[in-house]
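Re: weekly structure request thread

Next one in the queue (507 aa):
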Amino acid sequence: MLRLVLVVASGLLLSLAFEPVAWPVVLPLAVAGFFLAVHGRRARAGFGLGLAFGASFYLTHIWWMRAVAVSAWIGLSALETFFYGLTGAAVALLTSAAPTRRWWPLWASAAWVALEMLRSTWPFSGMPWGRLAFATVDTPVARLLPWIGMVGVSLVLALAAALLAHLALTRARSWRADAAGLGLVAAATAAAVLAPYDPGTPEGTVTVAAVQGDVPGPGNDILFDHRQVTLNHVEETERLAEAAAAGEVPQPDLVVWPENSTAVDPFLDVQTRAGIERAVAAAGVPVLVGAIVDDGPDHVLNQGIVWDPETGPGERYTKWHPVPYGEYIPFRQYVDFNFGELARIRRDMRAGSRTEPLEVAGARLADAICFDVAYDDGIHAQVREGADLLTVQTSNATFIFTDQVDQQFAITRLRALEAGKWLVVASTNGLTGIIDPDGEVVETVERRTTASVVAEVGLHRGASPGIVLTPWVTLGVQLATVLGLLLVLLARVRSRRGAPQVDEASA
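Done, posted below.
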């Protein structure tokens, strides 16, 4: 019962590390509580304790999912809770068997991150919300991001928590090893703060504007009056052009519109296309338009389209990670999902796979659409192929009255820091802003307003060490976890084979 109370309290405590509370100092304590509770237990008990931890954390962490539906909040939380159950079982095994027990903080932290990455990518596209690294905005630990990436930072935090748990379990009898490990974590963090990652001299600059048109009506329904949403962006772009012509703001080289700035296909809808072309003509520069584009009778694409004032629509980025049961229905061909909120999803959104940056206004853009920003793969692939500027097109209208907006904006800031590049984020009604390579917000506007921001940004080529290392760190923790569990399994098999046999006749 004490262990159960401990994991529930630890899960709730971990949720306080993220927005809206954002107390990252509690993160290692919360994860250490998890490790303390499952340490040395049997796998089944570890699984149950992991479930309790996951439920208390995730139901709190994504409380905002109720804005979609209560069933979505409970269903997604239950799925993610299952992975914390697996984490509990894995850590229980790794801390109770001889082959891995001595160095269990290393094995357990690798298992935590391996399972964190598994739930962030599977099933379907997974759910990355709640990764430990996402709680580090405005902390010294965040300075490690360009050096070791999101996966590496999660590993450092998990290891620090495991060492704290080990100190508590041994009552400091073996404090030297734990202190040395914690000292290394602190030293690495201090080094990153004192000698921060330098992305180098920019190879050029561009002046970028991000437009936030706002959403009419209740503000949380992008389809309430989708034509007015598009018109808001058209008119704000025209006002921006007038202000630039009057010298009130710098003349932009590129304008970024958010996701869902058009909710109908601009190639088929005459009114929508006319509005876009009017805005692009007024700006006199390319506009990155967020649009829903038809892809046959049963599918749509969520795209960022480079719309040039002279040549019209050109290169496109398609969202990598459509939301299952939110933007498409898995297994629709086998099950009729025409009920409840799912009945609103009449056509499935296809996923994109573009890795080449968008060439526009002399810049090479790594684009991300909404939840894409929480995934490593799409952004990292574009950066490795030469992107020198990051853009995020998002529509947080559904969640505008929730903490999801703040959580996503924190992740967005961390992405700029991880890549060591400027980042421009455009949202339909919040939060829109421009972020520098240190993750600092240099321009922003209030949510639920019609406004735009303009800034000159540097173009930094090359991938940070953290982005280069991420696939290898991910593979390393996965292999370490599998190896550790195999060692435990082999030890148990040998133990059973070596057990004394009972002579049934003599018995």
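Confidence is low (pLDDT under 50) at residues 502-507. The chain has two domains: 2-197+466-497, 205-463.
Next request, please.
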